[in-house]
Amino acid sequence: MNRQQAIRAISSWLTDELVVSCNGLISRELASAHDRPGNFYMLGSMGLASSIALGVSKASQKKVVAIEGDGNLLMNLNTLATIATEKPGGFTHIVLDNNVYESTGGQGTRSSIGLDGMAKAAGYMYVARASDVGGLIAALDGVKGKSPAFVLAKIDTGGSAQPRVPLPPQVIRDRFSKEAGGLHERDSSI
């Protein structure tokens, strides 16, 4: 399974959840495949997608999905313990793991340490691993009411390069805030 196939499978599974996607190729692919106001595309801040998603889940009544790569998660591993400790309701954490920092040039990561095992050890209520589209859909369907949930999707490197997210940061923020129930309006520091 490649990144595009994984993103399309995730997109088909989504309903009205708020989605925070990491910077780089994952946000580009999501914007290209399934742009919607409920998507917050990280345009910087590598490693913070799941932390931002946790904050959104604490401030919104909607379910929240964080989508990031193995490299992003490795840059902020403490987020696993924080999310598991906070136990946000309706929180799904999806990691697309190809063992490289693909957005920055393909440098190798150390995700072979077992990110799903780390999520389980941290205390996530549901942990699943998938290596093909059918397995990914089954893993996502298994989330049902278990939160926080962690799904590791093993993906291949490479794929077509999508254009940059065509929206300015303020537009991404404002439409996401409105979809989330006015987060920006309630907290002017965002």
Can you summarize this structure?
With 190 residues, the protein is α/β, with parallel strands linked by helices. Helices cover 41% and strands 18% of the residues.
Percent of sequence in beta strands: 15-25%
Number of helices: 9
CATH fold naming = Rossmann fold
**What radius of gyration results from the CA coordinates?**
15 Å
Regions with little confidence, pLDDT below 50 for 5+ residues: none
Structural class label: alpha/beta
Which class in CATH terms?
Alpha Beta
- Helicity range of the residues? 40-55%
Adjacency order of strands in the biggest sheet: 2-1-3-4-8-7
- Sheet of most strands: 6 strands, parallel
Return the domain count.
1
What pattern of helices and strands is seen along the backbone?
Answer: HEHEHEHHEEEHEHEHH
In CATH terms, what is the architecture?
3-Layer(aba) Sandwich
Alpha-carbon distance between the two ends: 36 Å
Whole-number average pLDDT? 93
The coarse silhouette is: globular
CATH superfamily: Thiamin diphosphate (ThDP)-binding fold, Pyr/PP domains
How many strand elements? 8
Can you offer a commentary on this structure?
The chain has helices at 3-13, 25-34, 49-59, 70-74, 78-86, 115-122, 133-141, 169-179, 183-186; strands spanning 18-21, 39-41, 64-69, 91-97, 100-101, 107-108, 126-130, 149-154. By secondary structure, it is an alpha/beta fold. It has one domain (3-186): 3-Layer(aba) Sandwich (Rossmann fold). Strands 2-1-3-4-8-7 form a six-stranded parallel β-sheet, sandwiched between helices. A two-stranded antiparallel sheet has the order 5-6. Strand 1 (18-21), helix 2 and strand 2 form a beta-alpha-beta unit. Helix 1 packs across helix 2 (25-34) and helix 1 (3-13) runs parallel beside helix 7 (133-141). The N and C termini lie far apart (36 Å).
